[in-house]
Recover the amino acids of this structure.
């Protein structure tokens, strides 16, 4: 029987004013065949106008008194930008960064130069996330990536040489033809790098991508679900043994190195998003910009908001997003926080789903709530559907 919880008032409005900023840079040298992100291969044609639009959107949409605690520049490949564009972004951000706690940027191996690193330093970047994906060239080839493992090694050395120690490496697992031994070898190489943060993602086959069509036509075979689950467990086990803690289903960090910006997303906090496809979450409402780069440039240059289909969350959508994120986080679905943020008792809404997954051992109780068990974690997305 659900125990009744004390009534907690919603946060005062002032506490909900976002202190985080996401900036989307859509350019990639080439689209990877599994990627469905809002990216463009036309940097040479669009970069100048995109940067103009982005900086204009920044000054129009951010309140003058906005001071970011966390910034995340993602993409795409932000370090595909040329030095002039990075410098322009650095100058534009200056009014907003006093009081900054963490400033992350994504980079791809092979896109860094000494000059770009100097601008990133001047910009205030404190953390770099490298899209390494694998340290095995055969896996990189199968993924259709256009960099080699050696370029990741060189990029890490360059970053450290320039004073960037707070590094993340991305790892993709469940790649067609990958065996458990392949994954373990790759993972050991990652651990040997000694970076304080590793993000590990299972390969997904998104509709509309070449990988999706190839799987549908039988050209590409996804790894068995049971093997993918074994890989997931192996990653958690080995990273745990190496001193990492898993603060989110895909993210593991050495003590003190969890990404503060990721945590804002995971805790349903507020943030501004600038650039094509970027979403903002302000006072419980989420709006997303148009995905198309040229459409974004055109709208902003007409002094219009670049909102795409307005993606304002209704109550059910908010709850769906909340549960999805909570189940992916280490702290799980907490009753007191659910009541505070959504004004309902979690048991009142989800009693059946909770009972079912507790019974099958896919959920477990934790202080003040429920979280996925070791068996449930690889099935997070499927279990989340049952809550929705
Ligand atoms: S580098 Fe990353 S963002 Fe760019 S196409 Fe590849 S997966 Fe997508």
């Amino acid at each position: 029987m659900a125990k009744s919880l004390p009534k907690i008032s919603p946060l005062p409005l002032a506490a909900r004013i976002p202190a985080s900023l996401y900036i989307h840079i859509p350019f990639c040298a080439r689209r990877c065949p599994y990627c469905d992100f809002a990216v463009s291969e036309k940097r040479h044609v669009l970069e100048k106008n995109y940067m103009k639009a982005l900086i204009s959107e920044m000054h129009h949409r951010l309140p003058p008194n906005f001071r970011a605690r966390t910034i995340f520049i993602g993409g795409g490949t932000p370090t595909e930008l040329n030095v002039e564009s990075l410098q322009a972004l650095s100058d534009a951000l200056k009014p907003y960064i006093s009081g900054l706690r963490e400033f992350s940027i994504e980079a791809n191996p092979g896109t860094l130069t000494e000059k770009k690193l100097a601008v990133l330093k001047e910009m205030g970047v404190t953390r770099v996330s490298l899209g390494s994906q694998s340290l095995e060239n055969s896996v990189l080839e199968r993924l259709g990536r256009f960099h080699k493992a050696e370029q990741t090694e060189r990029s890490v050395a360059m970053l450290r040489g320039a004073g960037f120690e707070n590094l993340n490496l991305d790892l993709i697992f469940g790649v067609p033809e990958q065996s458990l031994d392949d994954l373990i070898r790759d993972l050991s190489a990652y651990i040997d790098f000694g970076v304080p943060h590793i993000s590990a993602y299972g390969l997904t086959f998104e509709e509309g991508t070449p990988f999706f069509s190839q799987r549908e036509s039988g050209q590409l075979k996804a790894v068995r679900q049971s093997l993918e689950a074994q890989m997931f467990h192996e990653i958690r086990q080995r990273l745990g043994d190496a001193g990492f803690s898993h603060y989110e289903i895909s993210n593991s960090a050495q003590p003190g190195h969890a990404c503060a910006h990721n945590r804002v997303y995971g805790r349903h906090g507020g943030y501004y998003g600038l650039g094509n496809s970027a979403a903002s979450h302000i006072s419980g409402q989420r709006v997303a910009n148009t995905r198309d780069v040229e459409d974004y440039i055109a709208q902003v240059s007409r002094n219009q908001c670049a909102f795409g289909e307005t993606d304002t969350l209704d109550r059910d959508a908010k709850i769906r997003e909340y549960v999805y994120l909570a189940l992916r986080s280490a702290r799980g679905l907490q009753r007191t926080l659910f009541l505070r943020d959504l004004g309902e008792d979690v048991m009142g809404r989800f009693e059946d789903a909770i009972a079912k997954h507790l019974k099958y051992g896919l959920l477990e109780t934790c202080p003040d709530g429920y979280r996925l068990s070791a068996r449930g974690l690889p099935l997070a997305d499927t279990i989340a559907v049952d809550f929705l």
User: Anything to note?
Assistant: The chain has two domains: 13-266, 316-388.
